[in-house]
Task: inverse folding
């Protein structure tokens, strides 16, 4: 993965880098990202293969069918991306496909929250900047993009645009506190100490 | 300073305040089942985490497990896949599992107390909203989502904000034919489905004190239907008698030491609460829901007095001012974690004995656990039900949520001893649910329509071997 974070989920997320995939359209809901029938499963494994399955079937030219974007790690979207059902399966599919960040005009709050818990920032940029970035990727899909959490900028070739995260989310990524589980595993000796004091664990 | 049980248990389990401002709370008991755990294990593997306290986690299959044919592989392939995944996960991480074939299998909220795994003063979490049930033994028990299941597996902890405590006193005596289910339906009717948001409910008062642990479980079970994330009853002699001798209860001397601690963690007499509510038990009668959330209920003889809720009236087919009494039913369901325990079955069977289910009603009894099922069979209750025309099923959630093949069809109306009357809850998008006590369900099954159970109870012999403290203590025989 191109983002600076360890595979254990702990650690700061400072930047995401790679090539981009432009997905145009407003209000793309999680049912389109991950159709409901793929929820009747015991695992998130393999979800990456079902991303936009119905949209891709209906439209051979769908960007997720386009081999030029097959290795992209930064998804560039428009307004209200990830609206609808709260299913974590949508960002799970994206992470499993290799995406490390999204840049868009706006995101559904639940989708952005679910993504943040997976270490995948959803950066917000102005509509015109998003359009310019999408156009640039469409013209030259190989353009390297770097999105920085700390600097609040995305640079793609000659294009540099401001990108933003909610301050608490930005702080969490930079301090490595974006993952609740990692936080709960931190200072684990304190957990063991509490457990050892509990009468029902100590044998009363 | 005097404290509530909630505060004492919370403090005893607090690890630290997290940078997010939430409390890191140690989870003393984690219960898992086949439906909300597989993705959590998947996330665990994805991150390379282990299960920190496998010995404090117990698993069973209940939600999707078939209650008819139990031979493996199950005829329902999804049930087989989910059960198989749980079996593999438990094997990999060293977690105790009571799978479909195990004598201790059952609804997760039935088997915890039944095996004595649930104990006073514990924090308990389970990926199921009715985890509040375990509060009947004086535990603080929360329902959690799949990401939190992952957190508990990985760390045995949760990041939570503390709850306020509302004391609900129910004083007086319940009349014959009025049950714990009527009490909790009345509480939810009074306080609303959102009334408990941000609260844990502490139930007390002479009517709660007089209840068996199983009855207290019925009350605590539905706390979440009133919006309260947790509900509990302070542990007392009834609790201790219930636990003594159960498989996972502390043995011998340890039990007496445990009782001393359990007494200490009960709410102090002078503790103050964020809110208090009082009800008279004598005012409560048999209660039935008419609508699409559990607060939409009425006394059996009352007209529906609710403010206009067009959606509920249209869905259910009731008019404002109508009575639920006399409504013909298609299905009668006795079971669930609310009312699928041995005392529930005993009471329903008492009413059913020597009577016949109406020919227009499909009636089923689904024991809450295999232990409940065995005990019912030992007492001959299953034969009573079968003779009357009920189907006698294997243990599981069954038609409480219609995730297996036990489902309503079309607009069928079901008299149900379960806890949710949401649209589509029982497996048909247009199916309708009337919540009531198991005795009322039995009465409706026989009458073919919703009736007051009390006249039917008149002249029925008193309960036979029902000893509230010993009820369900099945693994030991009596
Ligand atoms: S019986 Fe119903 S409410 Fe209880 S755990 Fe099963 S599905 Fe949930």
Result:
């Amino acid at each position: 993965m191109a983002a600076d974070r360890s595979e254990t989920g702990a650690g700061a997320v400072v930047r995401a880098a790679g090539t981009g995939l432009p997905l145009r359209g407003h209000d793309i809901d999680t049912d389109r990202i991950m159709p409901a029938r793929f929820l009747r499963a015991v695992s998130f494994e393999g979800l990456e293969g079902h991303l936009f399955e119905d949209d891709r079937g209906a439209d051979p030219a769908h960007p997720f069918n386009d081999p030029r974007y097959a290795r992209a790690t930064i998804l560039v979207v428009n307004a209200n991306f990830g609206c609808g059902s709260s299913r974590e399966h949508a960002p799970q599919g994206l992470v499993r496909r290799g995406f490390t960040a999204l840049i868009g005009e706006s995101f559904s709050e639940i989708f952005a929250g679910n993504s943040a818990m997976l270490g995948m920032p959803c950066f917000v940029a102005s509509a015109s900047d998003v359009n310019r970035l999408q156009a640039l990727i469409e013209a030259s899909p190989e353009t390297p993009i770097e999105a920085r959490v700390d600097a609040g900028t995305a640079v793609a070739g000659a294009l540099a645009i401001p990108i933003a995260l909610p301050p608490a989310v930005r702080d969490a990524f930079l301090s490595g506190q974006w993952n609740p589980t990692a936080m709960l595993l931190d200072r684990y000796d304190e957990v063991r100490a509490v457990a050892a004091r509990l009468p029902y664990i100590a044998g009363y | 300073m005097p404290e509530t049980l909630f505060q004492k248990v919370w403090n005893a389990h607090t690890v630290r305040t997290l940078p997010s401002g939430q409390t890191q709370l140690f989870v003393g008991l984690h219960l898992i089942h086949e439906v909300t755990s597989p993705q959590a294990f998947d996330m665990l593997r994805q991150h390379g985490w282990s299960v920190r306290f496998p010995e404090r986690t117990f698993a069973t299959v209940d939600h999707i497990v078939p209650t008819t044919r139990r031979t493996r592989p199950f005829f329902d392939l999804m049930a087989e896949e989910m059960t198989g995944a749980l079996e593999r996960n438990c094997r990999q991480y060293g977690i105790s599992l009571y799978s479909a074939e195990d004598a201790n299998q059952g609804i997760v909220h039935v088997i915890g107390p039944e095996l004595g795994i649930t104990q006073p003063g514990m924090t308990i979490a389970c990926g199921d909203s009715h985890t509040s049930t375990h509060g009947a033994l004086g535990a603080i028990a929360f329902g959690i989502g799949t990401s939190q299941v992952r957190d508990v597996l990985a760390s045995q902890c949760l990041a939570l904000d503390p709850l306020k405590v509302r004391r609900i006193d129910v004083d007086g005596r319940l009349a014959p034919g009025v049950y714990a289910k009527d009490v909790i339906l009345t509480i939810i009717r009074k306080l609303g489905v959102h009334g408990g948001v941000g609260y844990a409910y502490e139930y007390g008062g002479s009517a709660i004190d007089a209840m068996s642990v199983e009855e207290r479980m019925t009350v605590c079970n539905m706390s979440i239907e009133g919006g309260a994330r947790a509900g509990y009853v302070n542990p007392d002699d009834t609790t201790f008698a219930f636990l003594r001798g159960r498989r996972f209860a502390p043995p011998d001397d340890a039990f007496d030491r445990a009782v001393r601690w359990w007494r200490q963690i009960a709410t102090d007499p002078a503790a103050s609460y964020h809110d208090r509510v009082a009800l008279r038990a004598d005012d409560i009668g048999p209660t039935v829901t008419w609508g699409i959330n559990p607060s939409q209920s009425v006394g059996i003889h009352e007209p529906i007095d609710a403010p206009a809720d067009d959606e509920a009236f249209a869905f259910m087919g009731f008019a404002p001012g109508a009575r639920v009494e006399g409504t013909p039913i298609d299905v009668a369901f006795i079971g669930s974690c609310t009312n699928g325990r041995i005392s529930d079955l005993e009471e329903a069977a008492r009413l059913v004995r020597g009577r016949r289910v109406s020919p227009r009603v499909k009636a089923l009894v689904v024991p809450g656990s295999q232990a409940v099922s065995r005990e019912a069979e030992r007492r001959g209750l299953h034969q009573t039900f079968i003779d009357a025309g009920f189907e006698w099923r294997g243990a599981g959630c069954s038609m409480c949520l219609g995730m297996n093949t036990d489902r309503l069809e079309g607009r069928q109306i079901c008299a149900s001893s379960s806890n949710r009357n949401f649209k589509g809850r029982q497996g048909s998008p247009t199916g309708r649910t009337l919540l009531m006590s198991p005795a009322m369900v039995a009465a409706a099954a026989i009458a073919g329509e919703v009736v007051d159970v009390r006249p039917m109870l008149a002249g029925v012999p008193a309960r036979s071997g029902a000893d509230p403290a010993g009820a369900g203590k099945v693994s030991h025989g009596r």
